[in-house]
Design goal:
The protein is an alpha/beta fold. The chain has two domains: about 110 residues, 3-Layer(aba) Sandwich (Rossmann fold); about 130 residues, Glutamyl-tRNA Synthetase, domain 3 (Alpha-Beta Complex), CATH 3.90.800. About 35% of the residues lie in helices and about 15% in strands. The strands form four sheets. The chain has a three-stranded parallel beta sheet with strand order 1-2-3. The protein is globular, with a radius of gyration of 20 Å. Bound molecules: glutamic acid. The site of glutamic acid (GLU) has 7 residues, from loops.
Length: about 290
């Protein structure tokens, strides 16, 4: 009897070219490559550039230069999200056809006023795991006629997931298998904690949440290795995967590299920029040591 060929594990490093890569990215990229190599798997690079306003060709070029310098060989062609907006639009349409997304017309300022007013009255407004206030229910509860009228008027809007409805459709037992540096084992997903997340807005045709699950599925990614800052986002990713009938990868959320004040590194902090460290004479081996590998 011939054995069924086992699919090779597929790992990916998926930076957003909206700033120079820093030590935190180096840890993520090394871990993905090392784990792929140890498992006899593949290592992909994906450019997450759907935020068309903040991502630039110069930063994208910096990603290639940095990874090349670090000795991380990736497969080509590289998937660039801005080349695949149709894939995300199709996924959004699927959710729309099932009544799971709605047009959201409130501006950031209007949401802020709503939250401030509620909190001034002593009511606690729910916040997501990143600390942002949940979107108010106004647009979700709108009657279809008013909604059509607003859309026809050309009013700016985003598309948001009706998370409560989505959870009801997705059913119970939503979780994921985790073997990273935080909580491990089977993690129960809690998408309700996020409220009605944005899936697309006028200035960014897809959200991070939507494009990441579509791409991981299209690229056959079996193992998602990324920072612990995205641990809670996995709840929304699992919900979208279930709704869109996409496979469930394994997850590994790794420790973050913190600055001397204990804060997460950000792309605006030049002193930990990898190309600056290269210019200062450090080697790829030095970077491995600096990130604790
Ligand atoms: N593009 C995301 C970032 O740069 C990472 C997404 C992911 O690994 O899922 O933070």
């Amino acid at each position: 009897m011939s054995s069924i060929p086992r699919q090779k594990p597929i790992y990916r490093f998926a930076p957003s070219p909206n700033g120079p890569l820093h030590l935190g990215h180096a840890l993520s990229a090394f871990l993905n490559r090392d784990m792929a190599a140890a498992a006899g798997g593949r290592f992909l690079l994906r450019i997450e550039d759907i935020d068309l306003a903040r991502c630039t060709p110069t930063f994208e070029e910096g990603v290639y230069q940095t990874l090349d310098w670090l000795g991380l060989a990736w497969e080509t062609p590289v998937r660039r999200q801005s080349d695949h907006l149709d894939d995300y639009a199709t996924a959004l349409r699927t959710l729309y056809d099932r009544g799971l997304v709605y047009p959201a017309f409130l501006t950031r300022g209007e949401v802020r006023v709503r939250v401030d007013e509620a909190e001034a009255r002593g009511n606690l407004w729910p916040r997501d795991p990143d600390g942002s206030p949940h979107y108010p229910p106004d647009d979700r509860d709108r009657d279809p006629k008013t909604r059509e009228k607003l859309l026809a008027s050309g009013m700016r809007h985003a598309w948001r997931l009706d998370t409560t409805r989505a959870i009801a459709e997705a059913g119970k037992d939503l979780g994921w298998s985790e073997d990273g540096d935080g909580e491990t084992g089977t993690i129960l997903a809690d998408p309700a904690a996020w409220g009605d997340v944005v899936l697309s807005r006028s200035d960014a045709p897809s959200s991070y949440h939507l494009s990441v699950v579509v791409d991981d599925a299209l690229q056959g990614v079996t193992h998602v290795v990324r920072g612990l800052d995205l641990f809670h986002a996995t709840s929304i990713h699992r919900l979208l995967q279930r709704l869109l009938n996409l496979p469930e990868p394994h997850y590994h959320h790794h420790r973050l590299i913190l600055d001397s004040d204990g804060r997460k590194l950000s792309k605006s902090m030049g002193d930990t920029g990898l190309l600056e460290l290269k210019a200062a004479g450090l080697s790829a081996a030095d970077i491995r040591r600096l990130v604790g590998l």
